[in-house]
Write a structure and sequence with these properties.
175 residues; 3 helices; single chain; alpha+beta; 5 strands
Length: 175
């Protein structure tokens, strides 16, 4: 059996890191159908249901992105502020994407014959993709009432323009 050198092991590790890095973080974008991203539905002239859904573990980011979409929608509809009248965050475990792994090990091979035994070291490298690993699907849903003028002194009321700036800056989102 051919012995692998450390250069091969190095390149195998680089390839594995590259492949595992291909799964990018959640994107702030409109959802296609029932896919990942934001969506909204109009309830009345100044009431909407807004949601953001993605895979991952960052519950606060998902909640922030639902608020960001609510603020953008508020401005698009000609309002200044909105009040969150209800909110739900759903977390669902699913088997949805592969996980990569790399294994490196050394063995001592021993062979014995008529004239005695010989030992030789051997290095092995394994690279694999494991399907069926669990990940989370997080879905934040809020219902909002929009308004103009003086904003209510309510803990769940938000000025649209300020919220848009703060969340876009926090996640370094480009307009």
């Amino acid at each position: 059996m051919k012995q692998l050198n450390f250069k091969s092991v190095f390149w195998a590790l680089i390839l594995s890191a590259f492949l595992s890095g291909c799964a990018s973080g959640p994107a702030y974008k409109a959802a296609q159908g029932s896919g990942y991203g934001f969506s909204e539905s109009k309830l009345t002239d100044n009431q909407y249901r807004v949601s953001f859904k993605t895979r991952g573990d960052d519950k606060l980011m998902v909640m922030d992105f639902a608020l960001l979409r609510a603020a953008e929608l508020t401005q698009q509809q000609g309002f200044d502020w909105f009040v969150v009248v209800s909110r739900d965050t759903l977390i669902d475990q699913k088997s949805v994407y592969p996980k990569s792994s790399v294994g490196v090990g050394q063995d001592i091979y021993r062979s014995c014959g008529v004239f005695g035994c010989r030992s030789r070291p051997s290095t092995r490298v394994g690279i694999g993709l494991h399907f069926g690993d669990e990940s989370r699907e997080i879905h934040s849903i809020i219902e909002i009432n929009m308004g103009k003028g003086i904003r209510p002194e309510n803990l769940d009321s938000y000025p649209a323009n300020e919220l848009i700036k703060n969340i876009r800056d926090k996640y370094q989102l480009i307009d």
